[in-house]
Design goal:
The complex is a heterodimer of chains A (about 180) and B (about 280). Chain A is mainly α. In chain A, about 65% of the residues lie in helices and about 0% in strands. Chain A has one domain: Ferritin. The longest helix of chain B is centred in the N-terminal third of the chain and has 15 residues. Classes of the chains: A mainly alpha (about 180), B alpha/beta (about 280). Chains A and B meet through helix 1 of A and strand 7 of B.
Amino acid sequence: MSKPPSAPKVASLADLFALAWQIEADAVERYKLLADQMETHNNTELVKVFRDLARAEGIHADEIRRLAGDIDVAAHAGRIGRWQGDSPEEVDLSAAHYLMTPWHALQMALVGEKRALEFFTGIVETTKDEKVKKMAAEFVEEEAEHVNLVHRLLRKYPEPAEGWAEDPDPPNTVE
Amino acid sequence: MSNLDVRPACKPGDYKSDVKPIWCPGCGDYHVLLSFGRAFAQLGVPPERIAVISGIGCSSRIPAYTNCYGFHGVHGRSLALAAGLKVTRPDLTVVVASGDGDGYSIGGNHFIHACRRNIDMTYVVMDNHIYGMTKGQPSPTTEPEFDTALSPGGTGLRPFHPLVVALASGANFIARCFSGDFNQTADILVEAIEHPGFSFVEILSPCVTFRPDEKNWKNLVHPAPVGATDDPAKAARRIMTDDGFNIGILYRGKRLPYRPEFGAQVSDASELEKEFEL
C-alpha cells in the first residue's frame, strides 16, 4: 500500500539508540535473506554483495550498541513499538530477481541509506531534546557517509545493459 | 510456575528454521514468512505450541521454513489434517497454509466444510491466481482472460470468490491482506488466531515468475473503506461489491467454535475392538 512508513516516537536518547540499532538489525536480516535467495538460485556474485552488505550493517549495529553503553538497545527497541511498514533500511524484497546484478543490489541499498538519512534528519529538525539532537546529527553524518559510499561503489558497477533479465532457459517455460 | 512462564519472549527470528526457502526471489511468500514470525512473536506463543500444517504447492512449503511443529501434507487436504490435530490437541495454536490451487481447487470441498465446522484454527491462503509450482496452469482464482500456453486465450471461466464462499459456509473471521505489507499482515494474523472459531485470511501474494503483472498489486491494494462487521449480510454485500483489493478485516462472526466432546479415554485396546465387532 502506498502509505509512507511511520516511525515509533523518539522521546529520549534511549529511544534513539534503540531505533537506530533496530534499523541496522532489520537491514542485516533483510540482506541475509536476499543472500540466501541468491545462493539458492546460484547467483554467486550477488551472494557476496548481499553478505557484504549484511556484514557492514552488522558492524553499524554493533557500533550503535557500543555507543548506547548501558542501554539494552534490543530490549528497548522491543518496548517502544515498531515501524508501520518497512523500517528505513529494510530493502524491498519484491524487487529481487534471480538474475539481478550488483548494480541492482546497490540501488536497493541506496534507497535504504537515503531513507535512513531522511529519518535522522527529520529527528534533528524536530526534536527539542538537545542530547537527542546531537546524537541524531551524528547519525545523519554517518548515513550521509553511507550514501556516498554506495555512490562510489556504483561507479564500479555500472547499470547493466537492457536485457539483463533474459534467460536462455527460463524457469517459466512450459516443457 | 512452569518453565514456559519464565523463559524470555520469543523474537520473530526464533520462529525461523535453518532451511533456506527455495521460492523465486521477489515472491510474495517471503513476506508471508516474515509475517508469520512477527505474528507468532506478538502472540507470545512459543514455537513448540504452534503447528503449521500445509498441503502442496509453493506456499505449502512454509512449515519447513518455520521452527514450529509442521506437517507438509497431501494436496488439498491440509484442512482435514489440521482439523484432526486441533480437535485432539486443542491446546495447540493451529495455522494452516495453502495456496489458491491447493486450497480452492482440489481442496475446495475441505474449505467449505472447514468453514461450516468452525473449528478454532486459522487458514491462510497465499493467493497468486496461478499454479506456480507446476509451471503456470490457471487456478480457480485466475482471471478468465488470462492467456497462458496452457490455456490459450484464457479459460473464459468465472473466478472463484473465496471470501464469499467462506462467509456463506460459516467462517467466523474473514480478512484480506497484501503480502508486501507484512507488518499489517502480521497484525491481522494475530487477530485471526485470537478470534475463536475458523478464521480465514486470504493473502494476495504475487507470483513474480508466472504472473509478473502482479508486481503492480502494490499499487492496487487499499484499505477497506469501513471496519469489520459482525453482520453476515452486510459483510456479503461489501465483499461482493469490492474490487478484490480491499485490505483489512472484513468480517468478525460470533459463532461458537466447534469443540467435540470426547468420552472417557479408552486405555484398553480390546474395548475399542469391541466397538467394531460384527
